Amino acid sequence: VGYDINCGVRLLRTHLREEEVLGKREQLARRLFRDVPTGVAARGGIRKLSEREMERLALRGARWAVEEGYGREEDLEFIEEGGCLGGADPSLVSSYAVKRGMQQVGTLGSGNHFLEVDVVEEVYDTSIGGVLGLEKGQIVVIIHCGSRGYGHQIASEYIEVMERAVKKYGISLPDKQLACAPLSSPEAKDYLAAMACAANFAWANRQVIMYLAKKSFLHTFQIRGSELGMEIIYDVCHNIAKFEVHKVDGKERRVCVHRKGATRAFPPGHPQTPRKYREIGQPVLIPGDMGRYSYVLVGAPGAMEASFGSSCHGAGRILSRVKSRKKCQNMDMFQVLEGYGVTVKATGKRTIAEEMPHAYKDVAEVVDVVERAGLSKIVARVKPLVVIKG
Prior knowledge:
alpha+beta
């Protein structure tokens, strides 16, 4: 499923209002940037884990983080798969991958990963918004990241396994990057067990980042946790392979759904949707860019018929990273972003240049297509105020 296994998005709500944050944007941005390590080599979100702790984390996912004090039991209900993918086998993960992950729990990484403080700019369906706990003018937080060096190393090693499997099983590929193995083969089974470890690392990572972000807010605003009211709305992944039951040719079948650049979008009534959201559908989180806006949707019945319960996962690029950097030459990027009303903190200017709003499609047009296709229903639009990047 690519290098960043279980890259995903987590949306948090708070009791704060836009007017409370605007005067402290810079202060909050600095604190978040200090408390949540960013960048390719980021480490130190929490302590360095032992090999035994890494094994427990790989088996328990977000539950490991909760058991370690980084969150509450209730959080797990609002994470896809409860924050833990079954079938993980740490013995199939190399010692080097484990070593890479030991100091990276609670770190953001780089590239298109981010932590955003957003304001709810518009609620299009107030009844569904009410169930999600969203209202206009409210402050929310989006966390977008994955399995860091741990997942990247697992992918690197198993891609080599898959490349050999392609030759072994006589598979003809139109593109070398589609390296694969038959689902019932030993290579595929080992990979899925290792992939589950990386998926669980990513859920634990986002759980810890949520904890660190909460600390930043409490310190900046000097308020109690009950006043902040930071709670998870939902956490959904967009780079994973999972076994699900879907109708194929009119019959229910258990299939492996590979969502790469796609996110789950289960409709109202689906048993895998949290009980609180069962009547409205699973929250679908589609980020845009760090200047304009992102969207909150819920799954619609059409997704089960057309896309194995899936939706797009983001706006999508219109400029490569190289072309985006070239367009930023002689540009004061921070001034441009300030023009959007956004305060940005990043480890390096290169990442900002690659991720400027001009590099992305207008996500409003993207989610309009998603809604008209019957895959998801638009609920709310949020606008960034503070962006933390690698």
